[in-house]
Structure formats: structure tokens, C-alpha cells
Design brief:
The protein is of the alpha/beta class. It is built from 16 helices and 19 strands. It is globular, with a radius of gyration of 23 Å.
Length: 567
């Protein structure tokens, strides 16, 4: 097991080969890749690892089928490769998700038209399961369902014109923040120095070359100089704000971003299948396709996840939020497109939204041009600034591959660049599992009687092969085996998050290290219980305790988090 500890002193003790700004999916993947290449690497994140757009995503690992509509075969193939890599290296956190697209009559809504496109996708991705040892993580080919079969899965589809459906599979994440953390822990296990709540405020310079970062510890306010031969700016939506501060980068103009939003609703999934329905917006870049862009109703844990909605966003990333009026509009859209679902405001338990690079759409219109690929900025070529590359990633799915590309660009500046790393087939922390279903079944068979089945399932999914370490902590101390009030989360999981996973704030534990705040509010009693335990572990005084509880409740309120107990 790789334990990560927060030690800001290590940031200034040596000169690193590479400093990475941003601990989301792209920065974390880059840190892991660079460490495997043998580079002395440091990764800093201004908030918590995986706490920004990475945590706010739709939890899908896309295989690129949508790019068939754009006739963009290279992107289709690249997305499929990245989905395969995620299924291969993190089988505990990524699994196939079957998705039903209902068919209607003939023409573009019919089974023949849709099936032809999906069969073409199958042909273009014949190697999609290559090198994936786990049969439960294989992506099957297209299947077709009759009308009665679709209705058995979704009996509330009230449309006599529905003739059946076509099924394809994509990938789904169990926990996006824990997948980021798996990259971070893997990087640390390979020798990287990692630290959350450290903000890059400027670059260190030698003439026209970046030689590191001026940083600030956001917990105690201290200033830190991080010396490095090269810097990768992978701070996501915040990356360009760092560039605006220095005239060496000219009159930097921030690129357009989309605020992608989705929400969790209080509906238990009827099956393991997701449902695609046609919404109101259109993708104007689609060359071949149906009349409107699909929205998805997806089973995720015990809830249904609905999305995605896109909106051009020009405000500061810290002000990204879903307004109540927008939510009302989306509920109307769902009920207009899927009337029998009868969604109400009370059903919505949690709202997610994050920023990704956008195309050139106009706010408020239904005709949108979506972002095509991650942005790479080689500042040596664009500004004459050496030692720096900026990566602004577009899709969580492609984080591993895009991080590798950004490193390749940056490492051209070394006299002798190290060889590429096999990050597409090297298991992440906890992911060395050849057959997840067999591994999971074995864990269930050996489950201690004092540990509930739902608790064990969460441990296995969140920690993979390292679940036994958390379980051992619980079994060694009866107090650690107690479940947090009203939840299936153990006190031992909180202890593990603090002592081994760099959780320093209450939010870190509630929203990212455990399942407590995933999809709903865990309850005020649960929040208080976790805070009290962290107070004991970290020595908080009463003022810090109140502040942590207030901050976590404010974040849950921003997400519109409703109590699961109201179910």
C-alpha cells in the first residue's frame, strides 16, 4: 500500500526535474507518467486532489462512438484506446456500462440506420478489448432489443411508436475523485512528491526560462519556492490565469469553456442499463446523426444520474455553479422528452458542474459547437519562453494519453529525453486485479461478520487490492469498525483517509475519500461525527471544528445536496 503524507518542506529541499501544477485527472496522470519515466517529479494542487472539474464530471469513460457522427475517426480511435486503458489499469474503479438507445420507425430514428452506425463503430474498434485480462471489463459489440425487451427494462417508456432499441457499452467510474487519487498515489509510489492545498502564484525565472514555481501553502500562508528544470501547467480551467500574470506571455486571451452539468436523482435504477433520450440541443458539428443530441439517464450506485447540459461559461472557475432556475429548465426538458419519468424538483439530490474547453457556441442557443480536443501550448514556440508547457484537458477519459503527449512536448527540451512509460498497461494503485468479479466474490466470501456487505463492497470498489489494509484497521480496533451514523462508511475509512491519503479537511473525507457525500447529503449527524473524529486525529480546536463543519455544509448546499434519509 502506498501512503501519501503532506510535507511542504519536501517541496523546497531539492531541484526537481519536473514540477506539475494541478492535481486533477490530467496533472495526476502526468505525475504518474513522469515518475515512471524516472523523472524527479513534484505535483501541487491549490485545493484537494480531484476536487475540481474532475470530481464534477458525468462519471463516464467515453469510447468515442459520438465522433462517428463527426466522421472523426482519429478521435474515435483515441477515445477507445483510452477507455481500454482505464478498464485495464483501474478495474476496481471503471466498469462497462450498457446503454440502450430506443428506436422508432424507420429513417434516422430507426433500428436500421442506428444499427449501421453502431456496427461501423464495432468494426473500427475491433481491438477494444486487447490486453484487458479481466473478462468482466470487456466491451461487447452492439446488440439489438425488441420492443418488449426495452419495455421490460424501462416500462415507463410510453410511446407506441417505439420499435425496440440498440445497445452499446461505454465505461463508468465508480468514483472520479478516487480515480484521480489512484493516479496520485501511484505517482507517489513511483517516487513523486505530492502536496495538496499548495497554490502556484507565479513562476521562478532565469532570463526567459521558467525554472520552477513560487507557491503558497493555503493552510498556513507560508511561501515556498519550488525549483524545477521543467514545468507543466495542468491546472485545468485555472491554467490560463497563471499565464495572465506575466507580460512574457503577451496579451493572453482565455479560451472559451463549457460548464458541463448533470444531476443525481432519487430514483433507484430498475436495471444495470442506461437509457439515451433525445434532448433539445443539437451538435452543429455532427455530419451524420439523429435530430437532437442525446441525454442519458444512467444507473449509478443506488441513484440515477442525468445529463449532460452544456453552457458557455466566461466567469471565474471558482464561481461555477448550477442556478436553481437552470435546474427548473432542465427538469422541464426531461419531462418534455421523457414524460412518463415525471421528474420533480424534490427528486434532485445533487448537482454537479465542471468546466471543459468549448468550441465556438453562442450562449443560450441550441446549436452548439463542442470542444474537440485538449489544448497544448508549447510556450517555447509561441512566446519564446523555455521550460514550460500548458495542458488544458477536455475529457477525463483522455487524461492519461493527453498527459503523455504534453510530457513528450515538454521533454523535447531536455538533452536526452527519457523513454515513454507504459501507463496504458501498468495498474494504478489498487488496480492489479486480473478478474474483478472473482476478486470481489472472494472478498465477500471472507467478509467478517461485523462488516456489512454494502460496507465491504464500497471498500473493494474504492481501494481495490488495498481494501484489506482498511479492513485490517477496522478489525484491530472495535472503535474503528463502527459505521458513521446513518451510513455504510466505517470510522476506519476516515482514519485511513487522514493518515494515509493526505485528507486534511473535512470536505476531503466527506466528498472525495469516502462514499459519504457521493450523490447525497450524508446527514448532519454523519458530518459532525466525521469532524469530531478528524478533530481527534488532527488536533483541531473548537474554532477549527466549527469552521470545517460550516465549510463542508456550504459545499454540500452549493451542490443542492439533499438527505438520503428523506427517501
Amino acid at each position: 500500500m502506498t501512503a501519501i503524507q503532506r510535507d511542504t518542506r519536501a517541496l523546497a529541499e531539492c531541484e526537481f526535474d519536473l514540477a506539475i501544477v494541478g492535481g486533477g485527472a490530467f496533472g495526476a496522470a502526468a505525475a504518474w507518467d513522469a515518475s515512471l519515466r524516472g523523472l524527479r517529479t513534484v505535483l501541487i494542487e491549490r485545493n484537494d486532489f480531484g476536487g475540481g472539474s474532475s470530481a464534477e464530471c458525468f462519471k463516464m469513460v467515453h469510447g468515442g462512438i459520438r465522433y462517428l457522427q463527426h466522421a472523426d475517426i482519429p478521435r474515435l480511435r483515441a477515445s477507445c484506446r483510452e477507455r481500454s486503458a482505464m478498464l485495464r489499469i483501474a478495474p476496481h474503479l471503471v466498469a462497462p456500462l450498457p446503454i440502450v438507445i430506443p428506436t422508432y420507425g424507420s429513417g434516422r430514428k430507426g433500428k436500421l440506420f442506428l444499427g449501421a452506425g453502431m456496427r461501423m463503430y464495432d468494426f473500427l474498434t475491433l481491438d477494444r478489448n486487447a490486453g484487458i485480462p479481466d473478462p468482466s471489463r470487456h466491451i461487447p459489440g452492439t446488440r439489438f432489443l425488441g420492443r418488449s425487451q426495452v419495455l421490460s427494462l424501462f416500462p415507463d417508456i410510453d410511446d407506441p411508436a417505439m420499435t425496440g432499441g440498440a445497445v452499446f457499452d461505454d465505461g463508468q467510474m465508480y468514483s472520479p475523485p478516487r480515480l484521480v487519487l489512484a493516479f496520485v498515489k501511484s505517482a507517489a509510489g513511483a517516487g513523486a512528491t505530492t502536496c495538496n492545498y499548495v497554490e502556484a502564484v507565479d513562476f521562478l525565472w532565469h532570463a526567459n526560462r521558467v525554472r520552477g514555481l513560487k507557491a503558497r501553502d493555503r493552510l498556513d500562508g507560508s511561501e515556498i519556492d519550488i525549483r524545477a528544470r521543467l514545468v507543466l501547467n495542468a491546472a485545468g480551467p485555472g491554467a490560463e490565469y497563471l499565464l495572465e500574470r506575466d507580460p512574457r506571455f503577451g496579451q493572453w486571451r482565455r479560451g472559451p469553456f463549457s460548464r458541463d452539468a448533470c444531476f443525481v436523482v432519487r430514483r433507484k435504477p430498475r436495471s444495470e442499463y442506461a437509457l439515451a433520450i433525445q434532448g433539445r440541443s443539437r451538435d452543429r458539428d455532427s455530419l451524420i446523426g439523429r435530430e437532437a443530441r442525446h441525454m442519458f439517464l444512467v444507473p449509478w450506485r443506488d441513484f440515477t444520474l442525468i445529463g449532460v447540459w452544456h453552457r458557455l461559461f466566461t466567469d471565474h472557475p471558482d464561481r461555477t455553479v448550477v442556478e436553481e432556475s437552470e435546474l427548473a429548465t432542465w427538469i422541464d426538458e426531461i419531462n418534455d422528452c421523457y414524460p412518463s419519468f415525471r421528474l420533480t424538483r424534490e427528486d434532485v439530490m445533487y448537482r454537479n458542474c465542471g468546466l471543459v474547453p468549448f468550441g465556438d457556441g453562442t450562449a443560450g442557443t441550441a446549436e452548439l459547437s463542442f470542444g474537440k480536443e485538449s489544448r497544448y501550448v508549447d510556450h517555447r514556440r509561441l512566446h519564446g519562453v523555455e521550460g514550460l508547457v500548458t495542458l488544458i484537458g477536455i475529457r477525463y477519459t483522455t487524461a492519461r494519453g493527453d498527459a503523455a503527449t504534453a510530457l513528450d512536448i515538454l521533454l523535447e527540451q531536455l538533452p536526452q529525453a527519457p523513454a515513454t512509460a507504459p501507463t496504458d498497461r501498468t495498474p494504478l494503485s489498487g488496480g492489479a486485479i486480473d478478474d474483478f468479479e472473482a476478486f470481489h466474490a472472494s472478498a465477500r466470501r471472507s467478509r467478517p461478520v461485523e462488516i456489512g456487505e454494502a460496507t465491504l463492497d464500497g471498500l473493494v470498489r474504492n481501494h481495490g487490492t488495498a481494501y484489506a489494509d482498511v479492513l485490517a484497521r477496522a478489525l484491530a480496533d472495535a472503535a474503528e469498525a463502527v459505521r458513521i451514523e446513518g451510513t455504510d462508511t466505517l470510522v476506519a475509512e476516515v482514519t485511513h483517509a487522514v493518515r494515509s491519503e493526505m485528507a486534511v479537511k473535512l470536505e476531503d473525507v466527506v466528498l472525495r475519500r469516502t462514499d459519504l457525500g457521493s450523490g447525497c447529503h450524508p446527514g448532519t449527524g454523519a458530518v459532525r461525527a466525521v469532524a469530531e473524529h478528524m478533530r481527534t486525529l488532527l488536533g483541531w480546536d473548537e474554532s477549527r471544528l466549527r469552521s470545517e463543519i460550516a465549510g463542508t455544509e456550504a459545499t454540500l448546499a452549493r451542490h443542492g445536496a439533499a438527505m438520503a434519509a428523506a427517501e
